[in-house]
Amino acid sequence: MSAPRVRVAPSPTGDPHVGTAYMSLFNLGFARRHGGQFILRIEDTDRARFRADSEQQIYDTLRWLTLTWDEGPDIGGPFSPYRQSERLDTYRPFVDRLLADGHAYHCWCSPERLAEMRHQQQAKKLPTGYDRLCLGKSAEERKALGGATDTPVVRMLIPDDAPLTFTDVIRGEVSAPRPDDQVILKADGFPTYHLAVVVDDHLMGITHVVRGEEWISSTPKHILLYRWLDVPEPAWAHMPLLRNADKSKISKRKNPAARLTWFVEQGYLPEALLNFLALLGYGPQGESEVFTFDEFSASFDWSQVNTVGPVFDLQKLDWLNGHYIRALGADEFAQRLVEFAARADELGDDAAVLVSAAAPLVQERTRTLREALDMLHFLLVPADAFAIDETAAAKQLGDGAGPVLDAALAALEPLTGWAAPAIEEALRVALVDGLGLKPRNAFGPVRVAVTGSTVSPPLFESMELLGRETALTRLRDARAR
Ligand code: GLU
Q1: For atom 10 of ligand 1, which residue has the closest CA?
Q2: Beta strands in 36-103 (DSSP E)
Q3: Any domain includes 254
Q4: H or E stretch at 320
Q5: Where does ligand 1 bind, in terms of residues with CB under 6 Å?
Q6: Each residue of 101-129: pLDDT tens digit?
């Protein structure tokens, strides 16, 4: 195969959708497999839904995932600009040509008239679609009929023999419904997605259009535009839509995990998320589920894409993420945790050193960086904000706790060094040997007193990191409750 050129073409309409990462991953996997190029194009022609900060978030989250592009608005490339709002002059001649050839026509119908038309069609149980009132009319002729605006849009004239089937790289022969006379140029002079995508994919030399299955119904329109403009059609590959457990489409309104930034905030590792996305609807059953992007791309094959909507199972992601966390070297894990804490803005002065030192205590017992940081909360919280969880207190700091805490304080106060083995030794002698308690009953109150919770990283190491003064103060405060 000659080197493919593929693209992802997100619209900057809000927080980047997880589908953008999914599409990027498959496009990039395919491009790398065959030594091709992956292009990022920003499709910002829908001005009503445009959000200014969205484009930067797309860059940031895709880079975080290491899904990097060879050409794009921020890095340029031979087909610049890669932002559609900067290409308006490019589209106009294509529209003029379609008008001149009779494949497109002006339409002056006002939104009110179109709504009324649809209403009537529905009342008569007719298929809804543009009724071509404007077709073949001049501006004056049309105006005389009423319900017209001054600035026309341009519509495609869909022929009776429009192509309604096409070959899809993933799905084989695909059928799509007959399209309406699609608007390709809006009254504001901006092209619609349908025109811009075809013109840009053509001019940018895109060989394979890899996108979500929701675009299947648009493909006949795009095929017509390729034919009318007399340019070669790309290959089509429509990926399955990601679905919630109830099979509904993943939407940002209903599912926080539809937002890519959510995964960053929750402390997932990019390599785990990539692996998770690659597993969605892809791969031979029964083989290892853990693989890197390089392994994925080295064996990339469209025939492995399963078109039955893959279910977004976050438990699987948690499992994978825990696996990747445990596989990191200790220093690397510490560094990621510090970076995460800094990003989450939970790093006070000196806390980076503390997080780094405490990282080994949590690496084996956490599924996400968020969880790891939460486990270290007792260590990072300022003295005046430390609070003991009430349920934990009810369990461990009841009447029986007084003698335990007294004995613990008496054993720890005279300690000269403050290292975990010495702390452990002193507490064992005082509580297990001295008071005859089972370790669980001996250390439970101490754990809750110093960490505020019944679950914590290993107790003696935690106390060492907390420091002598803080640990003793917390024990005394708990005793005084
Ligand atoms: N701008 C479209 C989107 O946001 C791109 C669809 C395509 O890849 O053709 O999904």
Answers
A1: 10
A2: 37-40
A3: yes
A4: helix 314-327
A5: 9-11, 43, 193, 197, 211, 215
A6: 999 999 999 999 999 999 999 999 999 99
Instruction: Copy the structure tokens of residue 166.
Output: 């096409």
> Looking at the structure, do residues 132 and 200 belong to the same domain, yes or no?
yes
Judgement on whether residues 279 and 204 belong to the same structural domain of the protein: no
pLDDT at 286: 67
Residues 369 and 470 in one domain: no
Residues 49 and 171 in one domain: no
Task: Please name the residue whose Cα sits nearest to atom 8 of ligand 1.
Answer: 211
**Residue numbers of the domain that contains 359:** 329-380
How many Å lie between the centroid of ligand 1 and the Cα of residue 57? 17
| CA separation, residue 330 to residues 29, 290, 360, 455 (Å) | 30, 20, 6, 22
Mean pLDDT of 291-304: 94
At 145 the pLDDT is 97
How far is the centre of ligand 1, averaged over its atoms, from the C-alpha of 9 (Å)? 5
Q: How confident is residue 1, by pLDDT bands cut at 50, 70 and 90?
A: confident
**Residue 349: pLDDT above 70?**
no
For residues 327-355, give the mean pLDDT: 89
Q: State the helix-helix crossing angle for 459-466 and 351-362, rounded to 10 degrees.
A: 170
